[in-house]
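Please review this one.

:::
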Amino acid sequence: MLLQLQISVWFVNALYIIYAVLVLSSILVVISETRNAAKSLAWILALIFLPGLGLLLYLLFGQSMRHETLLSQSNREKLFNSNKLPDVDIDALALSENNKQLIKMCNKLDASRFYPGNDVHVYVRGQEKFDDLLFDIRNAQKFIHIQYFIFRDDDLGRRVCDALIEAVERGVEVRLLYDDMGCFTVDRRFFKNMEKHGIEVRAFMRIFHLRRSWRLNYRNHRKIVVIDGLVGYIGGMNVADRYVNGDKDLSWRDTHMRIAGPVVHGLQMSFSVDWCYESHNVLSDEKYFPQLMSTGDTGVQIILSGPTGPWNSIAMMCEKIVSMAHDYVYIQTPYFLPTDSLVYALQVAALSGVDVRIMIPQRTDLEVMRWGSFSYISQMLTAGVKVYLYQPGMLHAKTIVVDDELVSIGSANFDFRSFEHNFETNALVYGREQALRVKEDFMVDVSNCVLIDNIDLWRQRPLRHKIYESVVRLVSPVL
């Protein structure tokens, strides 16, 4: 009996020692990663003060991929060699010096090329976007590459699915990449049916995967379609009925874009990188990167960002855009949880006389993100930033428009998750016509907003709201 008790005590002590070693090792890893200080502190506190749970949360959500790559060097060379369009002399472009600097910076961050000569169409209504997408799918001749964070098994999802199956029956290659977490509630038989009809389907970073299950925090948030290498789509709309018909008592307002021209190569490059990571198949054949002629007069640059690689490319892009604004910068985002450097950039711009406006939804699909967004409003108002709360429903658009000359549209929200954890893709559109169009859309939305411009009145909101906001703000770096 005594021996059994001694063994039990020894076993329990051994477990304590193993746990302590794991926690200490994790803390040392967090410190060595030199990541955001607030995020590091949040994880260290969780590891110390949440026994067991803190370690589990860190293993599931906290590990960094910053020093990893999605592609091997040989596969990367194959892809980049397939893009044979001639380089552009940036200094010779009829753009402002600030825009030329932005192009050069993004090119250095992740080899984002500038593509002139594109035709761009912006959507603010889901019905119009999906009508055009279905039309392009039905007219595809060679291949369709489609990637969404969410692809629902609802009326819209089934219509897109049927169109893709019809394309396969015509002899078109169809590949679908979806995020496993984003489609977690979708019955897998929906995707199995696609595979049965000849569509190549891959889930990005499967949740229940022996090697990748510890990376739940890193999701592919991109929304990209490439058709025949000639036409592409990029923006904030997923494949779900709510983008057309709303969701319960919330209408959904989003922004998306159809692009034709050389920049489709950039969208194909983005898809090819993610597809190779999941399928180990490099889509570098010439048919995926056809020689493209100019179809318009708009220059576009595709910016990729994710938890791998040395740079937070889209966060740095946003900071550069805000800092270079002379007259105005208007931002729409469903979630507003910026990094400290972006908070300072917005404040500096507003204090310098730039008309800085931020539009976020009054009601969101994620209540915790609403409280987090509201926690930053006081800082914005203090510096003179105008904050608008969109009233009709869920504002899901992710747009930035600057000085009637530059627009950013894509999948990235103005928050920690998009900047540091998610795989995102944004398009930078250089041109007065598109900037004025997006500015006009912003002003239309302003008419459906409440302007928060009285900081004293804002500070009088209920104490419980302030507490909710403070708590969410505290953990926002790890949301």
Q: What stands out?
A: DSSP finds 18 helices and 19 strands in the chain. The chain has three domains: 2-62, 73-303, 313-478.
